Each structure stands twice: as C-alpha cells, then as structure tokens.
Amino acid sequence: MSALKIKKGSSSHSAYDLRDPNADVVESHTLACVVDNEAGVLARVIGLFSGRGYNIESLTVAEVNHEFHRSRITIVTSGTPQVIEQIKAQLGRIVPVHRVHDLTVEGASVERELALFKVAATGEQRVESLRLADIFRANVVDSTLNSFIFEMTGTSEKIDAFADLMRPLGLVETARTGVAALGRGPEK
Hints:
It is a single chain. The chain has 188 residues and is α+β, with helices and mostly antiparallel strands. The protein has 2 domains: 27-102, Alpha-Beta Plaits (2-Layer Sandwich), CATH 3.30.70; 109-183, Alpha-Beta Plaits (2-Layer Sandwich). It has helices at residues 41-52, 81-93, 123-135, 156-166, and strands at residues 27-36, 56-65, 70-79, 97-102, 109-120, 139-143, 147-154, 171-176, 180-183. The strands form 2 sheets. Strands 5, 6, 7, 8 and 9 form a 5-stranded antiparallel sheet that branches. Strands 2-3-1-4 form a 4-stranded antiparallel sheet, covered by helices on one side.
C-alpha cells in the first residue's frame, strides 16, 4: 500500500475540489434596513446579531418617514460571503423589516460619518491641531483656552486618519455617529 505525501505549503488543485477559494475571506458590508418605527424592533435586529455571534461595527438608526412611521437602520458588519447572505436572509424574515439592501454589492453608494473630537492642547500643538483641522475641513464647534472640539463629516477612513493625527497633539475624547449611507442613483 502506498501513501501519498504532500509537502507543507504546497497546494494541490483537483477537479474534485469544489471549495470556493474566497469562502473564508471576511468582507465588510453596509446593510440598510427599512423597518417599522415601533418599540422593540431595534432590539430584535440587534438580538439577531448577538444571538448568532455576528459583530456590528457601526449602527445608526433614525425615523425617515413620519407619515408611515418607518425608520432606517444602517449596519456595518463583516463576515464571509456566506455569513453576509445569512444575515441578510435572517433580517428579511423579521416581521417589522420591510426592505434589506446590501449597499456594498448593489452598486455605488455614499457613506458618511459624523465625529466630534476634543483636543486639549496649548502652544505649538494648539496651532498644529488647528492647521490639521483646516486641511481635513473639520469645523471648530467649541473652544476654550486649553481645548477645542472639532466636528468632522466624511468616510470612516478619513475620520480614523484625523484621529490618528490628533492623538499626539492631545486628543482627549472622540464621539462618532456611525455610518449613514445611501445607494447612488434614482432607485430605492
């Protein structure tokens, strides 16, 4: 009886290997759900994620239609393509959920986040923080002799970059809204 030996690190490609090579790739997706604006809906949506061990990276909720009492929940989550499909299917089965859109795969979308940054600085650090805020188009919304609060909107990456630059200059505190997103074009 002969044994087949495969060297470590070598890959074998077989016509019988039907596994998807991208199956284990974790991707970030932005999901937009239109739901009834009623008590308990957000808890049910969050419960779906926590009950199955899915992570929520960002979550925003607001009423978007007062007449029909509808809210929009925007969720940024990550997982393999199979996990993302499971999340979308399970969200669609929750009764007060009217629509689930995966903005990541449905085409171009616009994503923005609002952040507030408190920077405590004096002297050169104070001047540098103002210079960087100007470059990033951040607005000063509060100022004392020893600190600023900057307001900025932009992509999550832009906000992360600004925070990274402000840390050595005296970043004390940050508040972020989470991602708000809409698909581009005339369709819903």
